[in-house]
Amino acid sequence: MDMPFDLASLPTGALIQISPLVGRVLAPNPSPFTFTGTQTYVVGNRDVAVIDPGPDDLAHIAALNAAIGGRPVRAIMATHTHRDHSPGTRPLARATGAPIIGCAPLVIDDSGPRADAAFDVDYAPTRILADGERVSGDGWTLEALATPGHTSNHLCFALLEENALFTGDHIMGWSTSVVSPPDGDMAAYMRSMQLLVDRDDAIYYPAHGDPVEKPQRLARSMMGHRRNREGQILRAIGVDPDGVTIPEMVGQMYKGVDPRLYPAAGRSVLAHLIDLQQRGMAAEQDGRWQAR
Ligand SMILES: [Zn+2]
């Protein structure tokens, strides 16, 4: 696999403290989609919350237990239920006795273009957080922010004491996130991105990639990237009166990209097309898309 980093040098399994309240542990699941892997965050000092425990991987769960070090766990939290995020909630709950508190479960049969983006249908929260609801411990408060788009059940978590936002897969530190219909929704994603632009978070902690400073700038650039992509798609469907297929569009628009990413790119193009269709600007017949 062609990776932009040396796998052996990744600090998998170690707790790295990155702020007074926030530590992170990297899971051993790097891929072209998860970058260096899923980052699990451990929030708090005397007692903790664990955000996105990641895949149900024996070594990772052991690393999390070591990072927790016997401290009380107030909440095991998932931003959404893709398989690289939430399956670890269950072994960690068994090991610690802590409640699973976070996003809603979602039952969708979607194997999708990537196995780790399939939904974790066994996710079973003790308590579901609605937008604005909070979980707290000794010196820390996490507030849910509903951010549908990447998935319909996606939550970000704001750490009020540090003005930080755990962005899950809504914003990643290294790439745009995949918006894959039927559950992924481009219009919702853009609304959720605007929510972030309008907030004053000082830093983002994404589930994949490095912390993001000057985060509103990145959120704005993510929106600009999607608008550019939408413009490309509008031009592509405006050329031939017989229409154009999604694989044809992907071939044009993703030149130079690893072809293994084409299926995921096709899902993002479809997400744009559905959004354009709902706005009366595109129509589909037999898999061929045309401007309207
Ligand atoms: Zn995801």
Model description:
- This protein is an alpha+beta fold and 292 residues long.
- Helix content is 27%, strand content 21%.
- It has helices spanning 58-68, 89-96, 186-197, 215-237, 246-253, 262-278, and strands spanning 15-17, 22-26, 39-43, 48-51, 73-77, 101-102, 127-128, 134-137, 140-146, 155-159, 164-168, 203-206, 212-213, 282-285, 288-291.
- The strands form four sheets. The protein has a six-stranded mixed β-sheet, with no helix packed on it.
- The longest helix has 23 residues, at 215-237.
- Bound molecules: zinc ion (ZN).
- Zinc ion binds at residues 80, 82, 117, 150, 169.
- The site of zinc ion (ZN) has 5 residues, from loops.
Order of helices and strands: EEEEHEHEEEEEEHEEHHHEE
DSSP helix count? 6
Structural class: alpha+beta
For the largest beta sheet, what order do the strands appear in spatially?
8-9-10-11-12-13
The fraction of residues assigned to DSSP E strands is 15-25%
Basic shape = elongated
Q: Biggest β-sheet, characterized?
A: 6 strands, mixed
The count of strands amounts to 15
